[in-house]
Design goal:
By secondary structure, the chain is mainly alpha-helical. It has 20 helices and no strands. Helix 4 runs antiparallel to helix 19. The longest helix has 37 residues. 56% of the residues are buried.
Length: 462
């Protein structure tokens, strides 16, 4: 590890032109692996439940422990990358992610697996912004940098496609632990590549530790209340205590951000109408997409009796649609404006939630695949335009903060959706409740209708 963090001077003098492709490959691999880890684990959940004897709440925490730490720490990970330097921070993040993956693979019980997933999520929060900063450092020319970032983005889309299939194949042939063991050689390769990239400069960037801690407590308390509320009862003492922790920590977070000289979430930025609407839309879009991904991974295997590979293959058409629509969205937004694209994308995703309501144990598979089409189109159509709209709504010096906040809210939306769907799917027991699945789809669909209306009414027309 010391070789990666403090390489010899000769490597530090390596020219940017020679190290740029290496930096891009390293950044692309890191972003891809942290994305695959979400979708691949979704397919492995039934096997994890059988192996570690975890109920629905345990499976929810396996997903949300990762996503919540990812969401919460994303708020200050950019500042950490600036303070440490992009390459150093990236090496730290990849090293921790690799070690946590090994801990996941060796976990003897559901509790230790969840703890290791917390560490994975925290590491992923560092990897994501540091990988982008690494690309920014490696490419001075704006056009080459734009192409590099486009490749980085496509890597995420490919990971969404590969993740379920890879997760199903590994789980079926070698067991669910192989899903995490796969990260070890990838992590080692990334660390080796980093020794061939230029040293990153460090920049002074204040850390908002009180704000960061209270943000984690707020999200964790809320997730615990929603997840456990479906199992322990919404008026049980632990659930009410978790709600109280979430509310108290939320007020403390607000107070901390109001007083800090360099808050990680500038409150005045949230008072800007386009910013607030964009963040709400990001939350709702991810709630729809990740909620459906979690739901269908269990639906295909628990209710339809599919193998892991078969369930993973069901997601391939969805991922192809996402990739194609992501590439098309900016061109459509350029012609018709961003607001129509954001509104239509959300409306289609809301329609997708309602279209899935008839889904049952006897629904023909071709029909189940067809019903997924609007899910692949909606979110992928809206998100590129949404990101561009947010970037145009804040001053240039706030672009990094706004981007981190949007990614954090999107991850939080996914985590809360998984918490809600899992609580409703269990139906108070350990089975799979179709009624709970339909109720969850209805709730998220209505949320998307609300944010669609907000975007139509409040986003600028230009």
């Amino acid at each position: 590890m010391s070789v990666v963090l403090d390489p010899p001077r000769v490597l530090g003098r390596r020219s940017r032109s020679s190290s740029s492709p290496v930096a891009l490959i390293a950044a692309l691999l890191g972003f891809t692996v942290i994305t695959i880890d979400v979708t691949a684990v979704n397919i492995a959940l039934p096997d994890i439940r059988d192996s570690l004897h975890g109920g629905m709440a345990g499976l929810q925490w396996v997903v949300d422990a990762y996503t919540l730490m990812f969401a919460a720490l994303m708020l200050s990970a950019g500042a950490l990358a600036d303070r440490a330097g992009a390459r150093r921070a990236y090496a730290w993040g990849v090293g921790l992610f690799t070690a946590a993956s090994l801990a996941c693979a060796l976990a003897p019980g559901i509790g230790s697996l969840i703890a290791a997933r917390v560490a994975q999520g925290g590491a992923a929060a560092v990897v994501m912004p540091a990988s982008l900063a690494l690309i920014r450092q490696a490419y001075d020319d704006p056009r080459r940098r734009a192409r590099a970032i486009a490749l980085w983005t496509v890597g995420g889309s490919v990971a969404v496609a590969v993740g379920p299939v890879l997760g199903g194949a590994l789980t079926e042939t070698a067991g669910w632990r192989a899903v995490f063991l796969l990260n070890l050689p990838v992590g080692a390769l990334i660390l080796a590549l980093l020794t061939r990239t230029a040293v990153s400069p460090r920049r002074p960037a204040p850390l908002d530790l009180v704000g960061q801690v209270t943000a984690v407590l707020t999200l964790a308390g809320l997730a615990f209340a929603v997840i456990e509320g479906g199992h322990l009862g919404w008026t049980s003492a632990p659930v009410l205590a978790a709600f109280a922790v979430a509310v108290g920590a939320g007020f403390a977070f607000h107070a901390a951000e109001k007083r800090h000289r360099a808050p990680m979430v500038p409150l005045e930025m949230l008072r800007e109408r386009p910013v607030a609407v964009a963040l709400a839309v990001g939350f709702a879009v991810n709630a729809g997409f990740y909620g459906v991904t979690f739901l269908l991974g269990l639906y295909y295997q628990q209710l339809r009796g599919m193998s892991g590979v078969e369930a993973g293959l069901m997601f391939v058409p969805l991922a192809v649609l996402i990739t194609a629509t992501n590439l098309m969205s900016p061109r459509v937004a350029e012609r018709f404006g961003r607001r129509p694209v954001i509104v239509v994308g959300q409306a289609v995703l809301a329609l997708a939630m309602f279209a899935l309501l008839p889904l049952g144990a006897e629904t023909p598979l071709w029909q189940a695949l067809l019903l997924l089409v609007p899910t692949g189109l909606g979110g992928a159509f809206a998100v590129p335009a949404l990101t561009a709209q947010l970037m145009d709504s804040v001053p240039g010096e706030r672009a990094g903060t706004a981007s981190g906040l949007l990614n954090s809210l999107r991850q939080t939306g996914g985590a809360m959706s998984v918490a809600l769907f899992g609580a409703l799917l269990a139906g108070g027991g350990s089975g799979f409740s179709l009624a709970g699945m339909h109720l969850g789809l209805l709730v998220v669909g209505l949320l998307l209708c609300v944010t669609t209306a907000l975007a139509a009414l409040l986003l600028p027309r230009g």
